[in-house]
UniProtKB/TrEMBL annotation:
This is Ribosomal RNA small subunit methyltransferase H. One of its GO terms (molecular function) is rRNA (cytosine-N4-)-methyltransferase activity. It comes from Kiloniella spongiae. The gene is rsmH. InterPro entries: RsmH, SAM-dep_MeTrfase_MraW_recog, SAM-dependent_MTases_sf. HAMAP family: 16SrRNA_methyltr_H (MF_01007). Residues 288-297 have a biased composition (Basic and acidic residues). It catalyses: cytidine(1402) in 16S rRNA + S-adenosyl-L-methionine = N(4)-methylcytidine(1402) in 16S rRNA + S-adenosyl-L-homocysteine + H(+). S-adenosyl-L-methionine binds at G25, G26, Y27, D43, F70, D91, Q98. Residues 275-301 are annotated as: Disordered.
Amino acid sequence: MLPEIIAALTPQDNEVFVDGTFGAGGYSRAIAQQADCKVFGIDRDPTAHENAKKLPEVVAGKISTLSGCFGDMQALLKEAGINKVDGITLDLGVSSMQLDQAERGFSFQEDGPLDMRMDGPNSDQRPPASHIVNTYEEKEIADILYKYGEEKKSRLIARAIVTDRIEKPFETTLQLAELIRRIIRQKPRKDGKNIHPATRSFQALRIFVNDELGELERGLEAAEQLLNPGGRMAIVSFHSLEDRIVKNFLRERSGGTPQGSRHSPTVEPAALRKAPFSLPTKKAIAPSEKECSENPRSRSAKLRVAIRTDAPCTKGEVA
């Protein structure tokens, strides 16, 4: 959704932008080419930084890459001497670059080590997916698959994993994918658009391994702190768990009713406080038919856009 992202961010000369999910650098390059502005690309994947060295905009100094998680963008930018920015974009989930590298362990289409760590196989920050399926209790595995993948057969899959790993621990992606295919029997669809039975389970493990939902919540809080009045935020999500977090955050921060418990204390009415964000449109923006036909992965994408007002941050400024 590159054209829609650029239209939302409207880059101007002398502005500063953050691409929190740098990947192959497509968004960062497009922003840098729109105006005489500065872009900071954040990524936890060492491969992304190695590939970035060859990009002309990086060589020219229009783009600078920062190694880390976008949830820590405020601290990362502060180290670079930046306290405020004019635009932030996030393209959530696994990147096409990571999916296409079988050795990273994200894909159930090709065999590779069951890893899924976005910061690389040498990460000392978190264990690989194989550690989860080989050591976690049956209930823990089932809960992960249900909570993060909304997999209805999570208990059956977890039971089969725990049974099979006694004879042979799970080491590869296809080993796990074939087990799930054995559990989830699918009838071929007439339109040919069958979803691989391992899709939800692999999504769940990837999200859990990389703490993606926690990262998103931290990133949204940081964006509120970092954006100048009039600053733009554009976020692309690909599944309901991510989009729900973004949608609820923007609803609350734009003056809507917070989503909470009926037992919670009464909160200050939205009408009595100035909201830190305004929404150009309350509905998510969908990809064009042309993009969906050219890039099937974009079919489930949702873009949400928000503009920072001059209201104080909800939780106060961070020193």
